[in-house]
Amino acid sequence: MSIADSGSAPALSGDEKSAVRDTWKVVYPHAEDHGTTILIKFLTENADAKKFFPKFQALKTADEMKSSPVLRDHAKRIMNSINDMVVALDDTNAQNAQMNGLSKKHANDFKVDPKYFKVISNVILSVIAEGLGAQFNDAAKNGWSKLLTTTCIGLKSAF
């Protein structure tokens, strides 16, 4: 399954939920590093998106980004939001509330282009897959794709 950013949020099967939770237990203890990798990859592959991050404007290289406390802090916030989604896998109301709040901030305060939610979600998926290797099986891939689809749809709700 590929990540979508419109339509209905897909339901995860029990196996997919278990796979997401199990893989997240491996990823989340290193949230800041993984989140930093995600942001660096996103910003280097989508240079035009950098305009939505005024605090990152002076960061020109991947090394500068990697050592930036401001970027690393934002990376932690992204990973903590993903953690909230994983924790609430069985509570779609909590997931929706979380994403609606973030959507309003991104639409009203940050004025981001919502097309980037799907783009960064694909980066998140690829970084998680790379980090997990063989542990990123079909159930994990499908579960993460569905969770990130739910995230994208929720993040676009205020646009």
From TrEMBL:
Annotated Globin domain residues: 11-159
Keywords: Heme, Iron, Metal-binding, Oxygen transport, Transport
GO molecular function annotation: heme binding; iron ion binding; oxidoreductase activity; oxygen binding; oxygen carrier activity
Ranges in a coiled coil: none
Entry keyword annotation includes Protein biosynthesis: no
Keyword Transport annotated: yes
Gene3D superfamilies according to UniProt: Globins (1.10.490.10)
Signal sequence, start to end: none
Family recorded in the similarity comment: Belongs to the globin family.
Protein name: Globin-1-like
Species, as recorded: Petromyzon marinus
